[in-house]
Input
Amino acid sequence: LLDSAHNADGRLSFEPGSKVVRLPYINYLRELGSTFLNTYTNSPICCPSRAAMWSGQYVHLSQSWNNYKCLDANSTTWMDLLERNGYRTKMLGKLDYTSGSHSVSNRVEAWTRDVQFLLRQEGRPVAQLIGNMSTRRIMEKDWKNTDKAAQWIRQTAAISKEPFALYLGLNLPHPYRTESLGPTAGGSTFRSSPYWLTKVSPELVSVPKWLPMAAMHPVDYYSTFTKNCSSDFTEEEIKNIRTFYFAMCAEADAMLGQVISALREKGLLANTVLIFTADHGELAMEHRQFYKMSMFEGSSRVPLLIMGPGLKSGLQVHQLVSLVDLYPTVLEIAGISAVGNLSGHSVLPLISTSRNVSKNEHPEWVLSEYHGCNANASTYMLRVGHWKYIAYADGISVPPQLFNVTVDKDELHNVVLRFPDVQAQLDKLLRSIVDYPKVSSAVHLYNKNRFAAWRDSLGRNYTEVIANLRWHIDWQKDILANEKAIDTWITSLDSI
Output
């Protein structure tokens, strides 16, 4: 059984992050299973990250460039292979790994990210208190899917003669759509109730340090601006946003509890492998940003906890792993041979009590990449030991970043100029894994072609449609500030 959250910061699944908010069912998995301390998404945005998880391939191999361009509907997932091999399967909730989803605004923002002007694409992040101490079911859609999962366990899995595989995808703790900004608005409201706020230890909620805007890396500056975080925030605002985010994590944890309770009630818990993870994290105002779309730890690091028969209890695994490893892991647990060329490796050798498992073949690095909106260059992250190396675009036009995440946990000190030998070594390793300048060029061409096709399909309605996408929040102001850049861009598009 695999339970996947949305925007869950992996650092909350172990200390010291686990002290900030009470997550009893995550703690249950941690005590009776294995916790992976260094798990990363392969792309810090919804659809591409899930494409990696379901396909077992890096996003540059599946060409899952953004929330609109992901896997084909007929792609073979590990759930497909389980079903073909006799498993009773069920998928509930947020799946989001095939092409064609998400809003038009989201697509256009990804296609036009190379344009040399800034538009605020998101609503300003805010916290919203609703209900009272009896208000527990806030994300109704997730609760309905959780109820369906528990019901399926009780009524189908419990009486099935075949082994079962259940996937439950949650929306929480992703922020809610800011309704006051209209139907095209993104999710910038962190919403919870007094009940869930009691699960948070407010004295442990930190106010993250920020670099001055002028000292930011150019891609981080772009992200901060387009996420509408460039204006002033009070410490109280920042702390409230973070507190409400942690409360939303507590509500998601309770949904995991419903699933565990159903398994226990039907006597299935002892012989079921339970996996909890997320598609990506949530910055929650770290680095003057919210959401994901960044290689900073809050965005790129995800939880991974695995509990089940024949697996070690109370184990903390330091090995670097990523979401592409789930595909071969699930198949090895089920005793099914993997097909095709997979990017990941099974984590079973790291946590099994049996010696009759595959040899650990994990490399000493993980790869993540990002090609979507709110970042104006294709981004590639290589984590090796205590180093995090971030390269951009063609490797020349945008400067790289290098962090020692062991001594600089806040990732505020880019030391790429201090360690040129390390940068050269890591860049060479990165290029041996992916020809990132070539991939960046392919994404750039894809974006221009897709935008041109979309523009042409609208005909005379183009001007009205593009003016009413969600960036219309500051459209009039931003148009005036960037008129020359927009004229230049439109002229360049006419030559496509």
